[in-house]
Amino acid sequence: MPAFKGKEMRMRLRFTKMHGCGNDFILVNESAGASQERKRGERAGAEREVAIPEERKGDVARALCRRRFAVGADGLIFLCEPSSSAYDFRMRIFNADGTEAEMSGNGIRCAAKFAFEHGVAPRKMRIQTEGGLRVAEVLKEKCEEAEAEEEAEGKNGSAGGVVGRTSLVRVFMGKPVFKCVDEPFKVKGMKGSGEEFEEVRLSVLSVGNPHAVMLVDSFEGLDVSALGRRISSLPAFPEGVNVNFVALRSKNEAESSEGAVGAAAEEGVAEIQVRTYERGVGETLSCGTGSTASVLALHRLGILDARKPVRVLTRGGVLTVELREDGAYLTGPATEVCEGTVEISF
Q1: Are residues 157 and 277 in the same domain?
Q2: Which CATH number goes with the domain that contains 149?
Q3: 202, 313: one domain
Q4: Are residues 258 and 277 located together in one domain of the fold?
């Protein structure tokens, strides 16, 4: 039973475990419907179940997200009542270290799937986030393609997935706000891919939360966690930044798995590979906002044309990013893993 410091209080908490391309979350429903259900349960004699106090949400996230000691996840998501009727619900997300994040591309797809299936919102929904309005749509309630990939991975000896619980969700991510494009940042003594260098070149932008994008020739020998942590702690980012390392894949490379950045730029990019260090978490198997930011940065640099759908290969699966006149769209799977109840005290 996870415990917290302060005045002791015990409560039972219902949760749903979900993931988007391996980026996993604990979802807690605190919408009006959930509140009514809690009251009905109390009248029926069930154990007391209450909403988590605002000042303790970060503490609960930090405790429940501890892998091997609790439920374990990259973050904790709350579905809450919105501030106005202009939204279907409000999504709040807390990182594993207890800090609150503005947005999560993978997390919002999970929230959208949950909201639609539990009657919180219609198929196409308006979601209030700390990073602004996001519009999500459940395109497929059951995504056979994603489930087939997960099942195949399981047969090949990797982790696999839970078959029959995956939906395909598209999210309107809005328009990016660029702070800089391909500018040098001093990082004396930093090592990567076996080399030590004095600076890195970054494109910095916001897609609801802050991201830095760095091109790399290869991920071989690259310590994503160490480099990402170092960049995120630079003085230029007093509140930290999510760091994305991007390797390009040319049309030929997508077929032969050989090539380099220069060749990719000349031949046209068929897809990109992205690994992300998320502030407050560390490296995750996938980052939806990071994938979006990476595609948009490369589009601004003229390396790829995001007006056509770009496949983003992450360690946890494949996402698709497309830039339209009204802004960027992120499409990918959202999978329900399990439901449960945990007792916590604080």
Answers
A1: no
A2: 3.10.310.10
A3: yes
A4: yes
What Rg do the C-alpha atoms of the chain give, in angstroms? Answer: 20
User: How many domains does the chain contain in total?
Assistant: 2
Closest CA to 121 of 24, 33, 21, 18: 33
Same domain membership, residue 312 and residue 193: yes
Query: Could you give the CA distance from residue 3 to residue 76 in angstroms, rounded to a whole number?
Result: 16
Per-residue tokens: 304: 């790829």
Asked if 88 contacts 80 with a C-beta cutoff of 8 angstroms, the reply is no
Instruction: For residues 154 and 229, state if they share a domain.
Output: no
Residues contacting residue 47 through CB under 8 Å, at least 6 positions apart: 12
* CA 113/CA 109 separation, integer angstroms: 6
DSSP 8-state class, residue 136: E
Residues contacting residue 192 through CB under 8 Å, at least 6 positions apart = 216, 221, 222, 223, 227
Say whether both 112 and 200 belong to one domain.
no
Q: Are strands 10-20 and 23-29 parallel, antiparallel or unpaired?
A: antiparallel
- Name the DSSP class of 181: E
Domain boundaries, position 277: 177-325
Render each residue's pLDDT in the chain as its tens digit; 346 residues. 565 555 566 788 999 999 999 999 999 999 986 655 555 444 444 444 567 889 999 999 999 999 999 999 999 999 999 999 999 999 999 999 999 999 999 999 999 999 999 999 999 999 999 999 999 999 988 776 665 665 555 554 445 555 548 999 999 999 999 999 999 999 876 655 555 667 899 999 999 999 999 999 999 989 999 999 999 999 999 999 999 999 997 555 555 444 444 444 444 557 999 999 999 999 999 999 999 999 999 999 999 999 999 999 999 999 999 999 999 999 999 999 999 999 987 6
Please tell me whether residues 206 and 123 are part of one structural domain.
Answer: no
Residues 64-70: contacts with CB within 8 Å, 24+ apart? 64/2, 64/15, 64/26, 64/342, 64/344, 65/26, 65/95, 65/96, 66/2, 66/96, 70/2, 70/342
Whether residues 169 and 294 share a domain: the answer is no
